[in-house]
Design goal:
heterodimer, A: alpha/beta, about 45% helix, B: alpha+beta, three-stranded antiparallel β-sheet
């Protein structure tokens, strides 16, 4: 729970978190090295200096640190673990459902554990999806369509094999599909940031919800178009939000643009932890106001009510969580007590 | 561009033209990062230029290890084409540094291979790469148009006048950063809009617009006029394009600085592209 300087109490779901292992021991090849170095540049390039960790710690951090950064220091009530495999780059994977489940086991009321599938995994992948559902009752998956498997450098949601998986998701009640459509490399033979395959899938599966992570950046205009057309397409703010620090006006204009096209009910907060820490993102977001000229031009405002929706209420709706009930459940846990102590008014 | 012969005449006594680093930089000065609509030289992406008599190598690098190979290939190809056109050149070589596909791109581009040949397993046709280039030229055009239109509206031009302007109604002076517009009410000179206008007109002619003096100044990216009264609606789309390109540019610059200069984010960074 975030208690703002202006006395508001805000329920927070961080929709995008990971417990990753990119340590040298787990790096399979130069891609594994290149991957985490690239992440580190994102973090250092867009975070306030005091939130940049030493590289060694960033490569692999402890479950304790993660719980502290999210729930004690970082105001988060619930974190969603988004599993990203990358087994071509890391021996044990980057953050598989097994790796992430360490957090879920330790803090069952604090985490929602999401699985993943890959359209190229065939029948065994479907079996694995059913296993994840059985073991963890997952309600969502992270889809990383640019993942490398052997010679293949990715797939599209419009591929027939992806349809088989989405049919299975609909059958199993795995309704939240978080699609990574941010900076990617492959496939080579088209604009690698293209989000149009989501449009196709969203039309065919109205019972599923598609959350385009990183709001389709760097193809924001395409995302806005699709999210306007399709009622079941939402946007996750991770990667975009840290721009509040170096470029507050750009970010304000991005928000105005999103509110104009997509509306306040279809935008979700995510830190992409450990890329960025939720504490400063939440503080800055709550303090952010749209400049008057942008309000006038776009005819929208970033009100407290809208911020509440983005920070927690929209995700609560997607994942069937009653915020008041849930806050009650976690208000006395150890983490909540530590947070209470940390932010107690002296 | 001066011919080989004329340059030799200017340097009597030397059998060949001495290529300098400055020549090379001048030749590649306007090679763009297609996605960001900014020159590589200005972005700092040129790592170094090596001149060894008639043999020239340009080494470039990108903000991340994972920048899309298709864009990287376009940039590498453009760089090589510019060096090959230098008078007196014997071998023109381009190298990409610190990239997930650096070997494939460097090897293939210097063998003059097309993108489809370089990545035969994954890429069917080169036409797709050229289509990508055209898409981003159009986006660059829309961004520049959005900037210009905003500036002109802010300066007091009304929508109807703006939509009726032709190329010949403008007098652009980029060195003074000024543009004078002939309107039905008389000439209006706008300070600070010369560079924006020049940049817009150049991009428009690259995508095939503005071929005649009486072409409309403000059209969509295919040359179709904007429906009267529909400018605001039209701008809602193009401003998303502008925002997106600026966002990418900011992101790529931050990543580049973090990667190569170990400089982190600063809250006081100038938001130089704001309007």
């Amino acid at each position: 729970m975030y208690r703002s300087p202006d006395g508001e109490e805000v329920f927070v779901i961080d929709c995008h978190t990971h417990l990753w292992d990119a340590s040298p021991a787990n790096q399979r090849n130069k891609w594994g090295r290149g991957w985490i170095d690239c992440f580190y540049a994102y973090t250092t390039g867009l975070s306030p200096a005091e939130y940049v960790w030493p590289l060694e710690e960033y490569e692999k951090y402890s479950p304790d640190r993660m719980a502290h950064d999210l729930f004690v220091k970082g105001y988060v009530d619930i974190g969603i673990l988004q599993s990203t495999y990358l087994k071509e780059f890391y021996f044990n994977g980057f953050n598989t459902i097994e790796q992430n489940s360490v957090m879920k086991r330790a803090y069952p009321d604090r985490f929602i554990l999401n699985g993943r599938w890959d359209a190229r995994d065939g029948e065994s992948g479907l079996e694995e999806l059913r296993r994840m559902k059985g073991e963890w009752d997952i309600k969502g998956v992270k889809l990383y369509t640019a993942e490398w498997i052997g010679n293949s450098k990715g797939y599209k949601l419009s591929d027939p094999d992806a349809y088989t998986y989405m049919e299975e998701c609909a059958k199993l009640g795995i309704t939240n599909l978080h699609v990574h459509k941010g900076p990617t490399v492959y496939p080579l033979n088209r604009d690698a940031f293209d989000v149009h395959d989501v449009d196709d899938a969203a039309t065919h599966f109205p019972e599923l919800t598609f959350i385009i992570e990183h709001i389709g950046l760097p193809r924001l205009e395409d995302f806005c178009w699709i999210a306007t057309q399709e009622s079941n397409v939402l946007g996750g703010l991770s990667v975009a939000m840290p721009f509040m620090h170096p470029r507050p006006r750009y970010f304000a204009e991005i928000m105005a643009n999103l509110l104009f096209w997509v509306g306040p009910d279809k935008i979700l907060f995510g830190s992409d932890y450990a890329l960025w820490e939720p504490k400063w993102l939440i503080e800055k977001f709550w303090a952010l106001e749209l400049p008057d000229d942008l309000k006038a031009e776009y005819g929208v405002d970033l009100t407290k009510e809208t911020k509440r929706k983005i920070l927690g209420l929209n995700a609560a709706r997607l994942y069937g969580i009653d915020p008041a009930e849930h806050l009650n459940k976690i208000s006395k846990d150890t983490l909540a007590q530590q947070a209470e102590k940390m932010y107690a008014v002296s | 561009m001066p011919s080989h012969d004329s340059l030799i005449t200017e340097s009597p006594g030397t059998p060949d033209v001495a290529i300098t680093e400055a020549h090379v930089y001048a030749a590649i000065a306007d090679v763009l990062d297609p996605e960001l609509d900014e020159p590589l030289v200005k972005l700092g992406f040129i790592d170094r230029v090596q001149v060894d008599g008639p043999d020239v190598t340009v080494v470039f690098k990108l903000p991340t290890y994972w920048c899309s190979p298709n864009f990287a290939y376009l940039m590498a190809g453009d760089l090589r084409a510019r060096i090959r056109a230098l008078p007196g050149i014997r071998t023109a070589r381009v190298e990409l540094l610190d990239h997930c596909a650096e070997d494939e791109i460097t090897t293939s581009i210097n063998q003059g291979k097309s993108f489809a040949d370089a990545f035969a397993d994954e890429v069917a046709e080169d036409e797709e790469l050229e289509e990508l280039r055209r898409t981003f030229l159009r986006k660059g055009f829309l961004m520049r148009q959005d900037r210009l239109v905003r500036q002109l509206l802010k300066a007091g031009l009304d929508e109807a006048t703006l939509l009726s302007l032709h190329i010949e109604d403008l007098m652009v002076d980029e060195s003074a950063n000024q543009v004078c517009v002939a309107t039905p009410q008389g000439a209006v000179c706008l300070e600070g809009a010369g560079l924006t206008t020049g940049a817009y007109l150049r991009k428009g002619s690259v995508i095939g617009l503005f071929q005649a003096k009486n072409d409309l100044l403000i059209t969509d990216d295919t040359g179709q006029p904007i429906i009267p009264g529909g400018l605001q609606e039209y701008l809602r789309r193009s401003r998303s394009v502008r925002l997106n390109i600026l966002f990418n540019t900011t992101m790529c610059k931050s990543l580049f600085r973090a990667r190569y200069e170990h400089i982190g984010a600063s809250a006081s960074d100038q938001e130089e592209d704001e309007l």
